[in-house]
Amino acid sequence: MKKRCGDPNVYINPSIKIPQLVIINIFAKMKTLLLFTFVISAAFSRPQVATIGRFLTDFGVNGYKYLYDTSDGQTKAEVAELKNEGREDEALSVQGFYSYIGSDGKNYSVGYTADETGFHPEGTHLPPAADVKRTPPVGIPPAALASLAG
Hints:
The chain crosses the membrane at residues 21-44. It holds the Pfam family Chitin_bind_4. Keywords: Cuticle, Membrane, Transmembrane, Transmembrane helix. This protein folds into 2 domains: 3-44; 52-149, no CATH class. The chain is built from 2 helices and 8 strands. It has helices spanning 18-44, 142-149, and strands at 3-4, 11-12, 52-60, 63-70, 75-83, 91-101, 107-115, 118-122. The model has no long low-confidence stretch (mean pLDDT 75). 23% of the residues lie in helices and 37% in strands. β3 (52-60) and β4 form a beta hairpin. It is α+β, with helices and mostly antiparallel strands. Strands 3-4-5-6-7-8 form a 6-stranded antiparallel beta sheet, with helices on one face. A two-stranded antiparallel sheet has the order 1-2.
């Protein structure tokens, strides 16, 4: 036969010894506390979603251009054009940059070119490497960016 203990939701078996009853009662109360803690933490930990502020594109047969920036401080722009079209050494030549705000609150920018010789980044914060320029990034020529805006 089961009897009720102090908590109306907890039933006990009379053959269970008192120390076990204490443990059962503690777990029953902890369940409520854990559920409450979970609900409160879920309410206050909503993910931050960045929104796109600007998005411009121009895709053509011989290349493309695009630019976007987001509400969390990210920006990316890229211009590509086909070089030596129709020849054996045909290649896509890309020039671009991206920037973001790091976890330390600083704005980081990387300029780059990419072509038949590889990817070549530039940035003052980049670690030393054989093919990395530690200079402020050059970015995209202003005329190319202006052509995106129309």
